[in-house]
Amino acid sequence: AQTVTQSQPEMSVQEAETVTLSCTYDTSESDYYLFWYKQPPSRQMILVIRQEAYKQQNATENRFSVNFQKAAKSFSLKISDSQLGDAAMYFCAYRSGDNNDMRFGAGTRLTVKP
Amino acid sequence: DSGVTQTPKHLITATGQRVTLRCSPRSGDLSVYWYQQSLDQGLQFLIQYYNGEERAKGNILERFSAQQFPDLHSELNLSSLELGDSALYFCASSPRFSYNEQFFGPGTRLTVL
Predict the structure, then answer these.
(1) Residues of chain A falling short of pLDDT 50
(2) Which residues of A touch B88 (CB under 8 A)?
(3) Using the 8-state DSSP alphabet, how is residue A1 labeled?
(4) Mean pLDDT score of chain B, rounded to an integer?
(5) Chain B residue set in contact with A, beta carbons under 8 Å
(6) Residue ranges of A 41-60 with Cβ closer than 8 A to chain B
(7) What is the mean pLDDT of residues B12-16?
């Protein structure tokens, strides 16, 4: 079964600095999708960024980018120019290409210091 | 706002009771997913419906059941509730059976006393 591991329960970053959140996953499949979701104190799950496994190019969304290392099964999230509003729980998620359930990691709580 | 609505927002009940959580997907979305998030944990996939039919099942207890109605809204029924069922229950929707993004509702917080 696919598993998603986030090894950093908590991270902190200074406002305007850059932080990287780690995620590794275990799979024997070649077709899959990876996601980072943000969950602020409101508890709403917000999609931050997604990556298709067949794409070699790392996904980027404004200040958010990923480092997708398929061979290493690693999918880290880089947040540049951190803002106070980035403070939240961040979940890494995996979805198989032919299955519909998403597997989530345990989450990383990000604190942004002013 | 994702366009997915869930009611109620909060629910407090006693052990042994039965509750129903409701989800309305985004307009036009045929697929509905249910997830459970226990305190400070990641989300656990429970079940998926597509256009009224069950399509995938995850870690859903036998005391839990769900259905999707012709108007595409979905209900998650939780019965014989236990203290450990206290959690945030999310509904998500996506346009098609297999789509690479799910849109999450605001969740229903269930507290079992």
Answers:
(1) none
(2) 43
(3) -
(4) 92
(5) 2, 31, 33, 35, 40-45, 48, 55-56, 58, 88, 90, 92, 97-98, 100-104, 106-107, 109
(6) 42-47, 50, 52
(7) 97
